[in-house]
Amino acid sequence: MTVLGIDPGVATVGWGFVHYDGYRFSNPEYGALITPPKIPLERRLEMIYDDLTKLIDRLKPDCVSIEELFFSKNITTGIAVAHARGVIMLACQKAGLPCYEFKPPQVKQAVVGYGNAEKKQVMLMTQMLLNLKELPRPDDAADGLALAVCCAHSLGMARLNAKLQNR
Q: What CATH number corresponds to the domain at position 129?
């Protein structure tokens, strides 16, 4: 199975792509979609949609994992990210891809084994799980990879449980 993990944002959309065979990960790719800060929000959203559509066409993932929106102190930033998240989900829908959503503690639990893990712990464990020579950068791309790992583990467990129930 191949999974595209996406960390939504307006300025930076982090992404990570992994192959998972049920036992190990291989051929990870990662990066970030960047939009310029001084252009209107609607243009930035269009750029995110266009760039993500091209990325999906190139990678051909089986599914997409996206972080659920987490509002902290700055609700204005959260609203803009919600717009970007909607555009990302639309691009996935248009591509016919199932989109799975995960909360930050679920990702931390799946990658590190502890739902309150620090960001650095998640990055280091992601690096280890994917056998990367260095920490993925930018941080948003590392988050995208962690989302992909979380989804692959979750779907792998769901498939295993289904197999066991059908015995």
A: 3.30.420.10
Cα–Cα distance between 66 and 71 in angstroms, integer?
A: 15
51 in catalytic set: no
Is 62 marked active-site? no
Catalytic residue among 7, 21, 62, 101: 7
Q: How many structural domains compose the chain?
A: 1
Say how many C-beta atoms besides its own lie within 10 A of residue 140's C-beta.
Answer: 23
CA 61 to chain centre: 12
Question: Is there a catalytic annotation at residue 143?
Answer: no
In this prediction the pTM is 0.91
Range of the domain at 145: 2-165
As averages over each run of 10 residues, the pLDDT of the chain (167 residues) reads 96 97 92 96 97 98 91 69 95 97 94 91 94 93 96 75 56
